[in-house]
Each structure stands twice: as C-alpha cells, then as structure tokens.
Design a protein that fits this description.
Elements: H1 2-11, E1 16-20, H2 21-34, E2 39-44, H3 51-59, E3 63-66, H4 69-77, E4 85-87, H5 94-102, E5 107-110, H6 113-125, E6 130-135, H7 160-164, E7 174-180, H8 190-210, E8 217-219, H9 236-249, E9 255-259, H10 261-264, E10 268-280, E11 283-288, H11 297-301, E12 307-309, E13 317-323, E14 332-339, E15 347-351, E16 372-377, E17 380-385
Parallel strand pairs: 1-16, 2-3, 2-9, 3-4, 4-5, 5-6, 6-7, 7-8, 8-9, 11-13
Antiparallel strand pairs: 1-10, 10-11, 10-15, 12-15, 13-14, 16-17
Helix pairs in contact: 2-3, 5-6, 8-9
Length: 395
C-alpha cells in the first residue's frame, strides 16, 4: 500500500485523501459474517459521505443513517434504497420531515415534541403511517464529556421524564418501533461499553413499559472507538458478543447500531507536502501545504492523526511540531516523531483519516485549494475528485 501511495504523490503536487476501499470491503464482510440476525448495523454517513464509500457499503448490504438532506441525496445517488435509510439528527423542520417522507425513508428518529407533532401531521396528510424511534437522553452521574454530550444536556432527544409527559395515542400516524439512545463516542474500553449499555438498556426498557411501547427496536447508536495512538484496537467480535449477552438478559427483540468511525477510519489517509521546516525558540517546527482546512479533527478534539513520512529512512527520529497553512495557531496537526533528515518537499502521511476527515473540516478559510480524493477499489485507482482552486467556489 505504501508503494501505491508513493506513486500517487509523484503524480500529484497538491494534498489529497486516499481511501483503501478493498480494505473497507474486507472489513464490512468480516462484520457481516459475525452479525446475529437481530443485530443490525447501519453506517453513520456523517463519518464520511464519499460516494464510492457509500457504494461499497450498499454492495455489502449495509443501510445508511443520514442526518441532512445532503446526506440523503448522496446516499440515494450511491444506490441506497428507502428501506436501507434511517434519518437522525436534532434539527428536523416540517419541510425536512416532509422530504424524508417523499424519499420513503424507512425510519425517522424523533428528537422533540415538535418533530412528533409535525411528522404526525405530514404522515396524516398523506394517509400514511411512518415508522419512528424516540430518542432518549439519559442523565449520568459521571461528569465525563463526549462530542455527543456524555453527561451534559444536549439537543439530542428528550429526557426520560420529558417523554413520560407524552401521550403517544395522540399520534395515530406514527408507528413507534422503539427507542434510540446514544451519548458517548470513540470508546475503546469494552468494560465501559458494558456499563453504559447496561444502564441505557435498563432505563429504556423501563421507559418503553411506561409508554406502553412494544419495543421492537432499541438503537444504541455507535461510539465504537479507533485507537489513534499505539495500542490495541476494539474488535467487533467482542462488542457483538457483549450485545448478545445484553440482548438475552433484557429480552430485546432487535438491536441497532450506527457505526461511523469504526467502519471507515482505518481505510483512509491524508497526504500533504511539507512547505517549510525551521527552528523556532528551540523547537523544531514544520509547515505543511494542507492543515485543519482539510483535517480539522486535531483542532476540534485535541488529538492528532498518526503521522509518518513516506521515506523508508533509517535516520534517527526527532519531534517536529507540525502546523498547516492557515493564519491561526489553531492549525496544529500535532507533535510527531519523524526522521531527522526529513526535508522540504517530502510528503507527510496521516493515517486513520477515513472518518471525520475532509467533510468535518473548514476548507474555505483562507481560500486554499480543496484536496483531491482518490480511491483504490478492486485493484483500480479511481479519482473521485481532483484538487480544485478557490476560483471554482468563490463568488
């Protein structure tokens, strides 16, 4: 794989993303071979909506969770059928819900009373009944933080007591399949999953009984982590075994997961040339052509992607502070140990960028070029998008 990437850098003079879709295909097949018939895995499109990634998911029979009309359009263009789509996200206007029904999206996750009322009205005006899940936000004793809220109060769903005030019999045009609860992300510790899911399931089962819901589905979201440092990775096999144990203990009919990072992170790379290397007040500093305008994750969560050079140099390493081209100190890609003889013009290779790479970033700031996106699939190199200049989008 390194040889393929090395060849690509010789043919390109601007930053680009590279996706190993053959590796992704194998990963998806491994997951599918393990899956119990009553454990369903959806792909969280927010992780990476690249059309070629969605096509590989579709070819392997995975459904997609969309959280915007843009993601819906992208999934449809990749061949996903209505039964293979669910809709999540806290912001769902009546117009948005209407468009989701136009697309015949199989299940819509309801996150507020307004959404409940609006969707019931939209479905009623069409003489239809729409499948929904009610999203629950649980209170936690822990003060731990998460990008999904953790123990904080967030816009995702309603609390247990809030849902208890709702009379579901008033919403005749909605078929409540069950509940949805997801508050923790990028978890690597199976024992933490056991604690979170046990708490989540027990409270959701109790709430379903109170609301007189025949809970056909409990959607636990995602949260399966990827290790961006040295160390062991969480395996789907161990997570799946835990789910089956909990499913039997609580007599759950069907469990859904929405996996994003865990699905695609390991199959994406970001490549950028080094523009400058200098010593600043006793520190080795490196400036690259692309930065958080292409991969914003380091600035958002203060954790860098793994980084190396493409060189096979045996030279001793030293720590370089790597920064991108933006006029802000926030454009920091981490401190990385790289060969001491690394030079201007060499390329840096950031790994595990298949999830939360380009579409999570801030590509228009300072009007730099947009990166290209290149895929390897079935042994062929596919150019999904060439690098384009700001002239293509500035008005």
């Amino acid at each position: 794989m390194n040889d393929i990437i090395q060849t690509l850098t010789q043919k390109h003079d601007a930053p680009f993303f590279f996706y190993d879709l053959d590796g992704l295909d194998r990963h998806l097949k491994e997951i599918k071979s393990i899956l119990h018939p009553e454990v369903k895995v959806w792909y969280a499109c927010k992780a990476n909506p690249l059309s070629n990634i969605l096509r590989v998911l579709n070819e392997n029979g995975f459904g997609v969770d969309v959280a915007s009309l843009g993601e819906l359009t992208q999934a449809q263009a990749a061949g996903l059928k209505p039964h293979a789509l669910i809709a999540t996200g806290p912001a769902k206007s009546k117009k948005y819900l209407s468009k989701m029904m136009d697309a015949q999206v199989s299940t819509i996750v309801i996150e507020s009373i307004n959404q409940l009322k609006d969707l019931n009205e939209v479905a009623g005006s069409r003489g239809l009944k729409q499948n929904v899940l009610l999203r629950v936000q649980l209170a936690w004793d822990e003060s731990l933080k998460s990008v999904l809220g953790g123990s904080s109060i967030t816009p995702f769903g309603l609390g247990v007591e809030d849902w208890k005030k709702v009379n579901l019999s008033e919403y005749a045009h909605l078929e409540v399949l069950g509940l949805h609860c997801f508050q923790w992300g990028n978890i690597l510790d199976l024992s933490k999953f056991a604690t979170i899911w046990e708490n989540t399931i027990s409270q959701c089962v109790s709430l379903a009984q109170y609301l007189k819901i025949d809970m056909k589905v409990l959607d636990l979201g995602g949260g399966l982590g990827v290790n961006y440092q040295e160390g062991t990775e969480l395996t789907f096999n161990e997570v799946h075994s835990l789910l089956l144990t909990l499913k039997e203990k609580y007599q759950l009919k069907e469990i859904w997961l929405e996996l994003g990072r865990f699905t695609v992170a390991n199959f994406g790379s970001y490549l950028t040339p080094i523009i400058d290397i200098k010593d600043v007040r006793g520190k080795k500093l490196m400036v690259t052509e692309g930065g958080i305008n292409h991969i914003a994750r380091p600035a958002l969560v203060n954790e860098a992607f793994p980084c190396s050079t493409l060189s096979l140099s045996k030279e001793a390493t030293e720590t370089f502070s790597v920064h991108g081209p933006l006029c802000t100190a926030l454009d920091f890609l981490g401190d990385h140990k790289l060969p001491r003889n690394t030079q201007v013009g060499d390329w840096l290779h950031f790994k595990k960028v298949g999830a939360y790479g380009f579409t999570e970033s801030m590509p228009y700031f300072l009007c730099h070029d947009l990166p290209g996106e290149i895929c390897l699939y079935k042994g062929d190199i596919i150019q999904s998008r060439t690098s384009v200049t700001s002239a293509s989008w500035l008005s």
